[in-house]
Amino acid sequence: MSREESQKKKVFDAEAASFLMKELRGNVGSGTTRSYEWRVSQMKALLKLMDENEDHIVDALRSDLDKPPLETVVYEVGMLRNSCEVVLKELKHWMMPEKVKTAIATFPSSAEIVPEPLGVVLVISAWNYPFLLSLDPVVGAIAAGNAVVLKPSEISPATSSLLAKLLEKYMDNSFIRVVEGEVDETTALLQQKWDKIFYTGNGRVGRIVMTAAAKHLTPVVLELGGKSPVVVDSNVNLQVTARRIISGKWGLNNGQACISPDYVITTKNYAPKLVDALKTELENSYGKSPLESKDLSRIVNSNHFARLTKLLDDAKVSGKIVYGGEKDESKLRIAPTLLLDVPRDSLIMGEEIFGPLLPIITVNKLEESIDVINSGTKPLAAYLFTTDNKFKEQFVKTVSAGGMLVNDTALHLVVHTLPFGGVGDSGTGAYHGKFSFDAFTHKKAVLYRSFMGDASIRYPPYTNTKLRLMKALIGGGILNIIRALLGRS
């Protein structure tokens, strides 16, 4: 950056953040974002943005993560396009007030639940899916009629820069803004009073976001992560199971995804067969030299490379590698790695891996897997491969997770009729489809009454007869009211 460009680039501090907030609040006061037409126009603008810039988006993600074009086109651009199209199809219905029944105590009356925008919201996104995880929440915020400020992750700088340029060009900047930067800029934004904050990332920063939000009583959605388990029964199609684990682990940004399988649990007897199947399918997918594969993303930066290296070098697991383990620090590449019989007190089992390492834990009976999972924090996703309906029902009933998938991995993410979000340490709140609209909407309760049917029993002076009638009305039921009128209650 030249000196002239540096001078031109203004510092974004608390004062700038406050000015931005005042400007957006003033603009929102016009009521423009509440209209169906404005919301639809912004969805169409996002679709146009993607149609005209897919190559630029692919290039940005290649620069940030060396992400394979297929993963970008399908899992980032494709999924965002689907989100926009669902909004265009369903928004008119979502915006309609919902008629609800009223109580006899308010007769005659009618009531409805009116969805209204929260106001001005902040979206802080993550680096691993920097296009999708930035704009998918923005889709929900716009669909709900809000003004929105997006703070992309500085760890994916090429995508962050592209987002700033594209949203400025295609979107209505009176209500939609991008703020680039690092910790200082994020801190300045968090000092403002937002109507909602949507954060995607890790639990450590999630706690910082929640603490900042608490000062203003701002509600939050926290999309975090956790150690998502995969339980494998011995009665499954082994080749398909191995492929689907590989797709969800290494086929999603080389394990750098919040819903990636974090570890596998299977029985001691079945583990060797599963390992052999995974080895075969990994070689089929990425060849004998996976560090050279163009179908695997690289590790995002040197800090994460060092973190993953530390997990592998732990004395408790260094001798447990049964496949992979190759590293190239100069290219920030780590090969798909399988580790068998990993101790549960090892470093790799103490934190979310977020990388291409897959520990396998063995148990004597598969039912023990439920206790292993439930002994830790609640994961964002839990996966089970089995044809045993009884065990499937037990697993679904007793394992708590943000989402669950039987006989596959990660695909629940693409079903817009399912809420996507965590529970406990893996997050709070949910989005996708109608759930995105709801995440940024206040459901306002409205009761309508006429001047007819005005009863004196609610007004002083209070008598025993009025007390009986009021108790009957509140309790509900015609019989109770008749008895009260007859003095029998």
From TrEMBL:
Positions of the catalytic residues: 223, 258
Keyword Lipid metabolism: no
Catalytic activity, as annotated: an aldehyde + NAD(+) + H2O = a carboxylate + NADH + 2 H(+)
Keyword Repressor included in the entry's annotation: no
GO biological process: aldehyde metabolic process; response to abscisic acid; response to water deprivation
Superkingdom of this protein's organism: Eukaryota
Domain Aldehyde dehydrogenase, residue spans: 37-446
InterPro entries from the UniProt entry: Ald_DH/histidinol_DH (IPR016161), Ald_DH_C (IPR016163), Ald_DH_CS_GLU (IPR029510), Ald_DH_N (IPR016162), Aldehyde_DH_dom (IPR015590), Aldehyde_DH_NAD(P) (IPR012394)
Record keywords, A-Z: NAD, Oxidoreductase
GO molecular function, one term: aldehyde dehydrogenase (NAD+) activity
GO cellular component: cytoplasm
Transmembrane segments: none
PANTHER family (UniProt xref): ALDEHYDE DEHYDROGENASE (PTHR43570)
Entry similarity comment: Belongs to the aldehyde dehydrogenase family.
Protein name according to UniProt: Aldehyde dehydrogenase
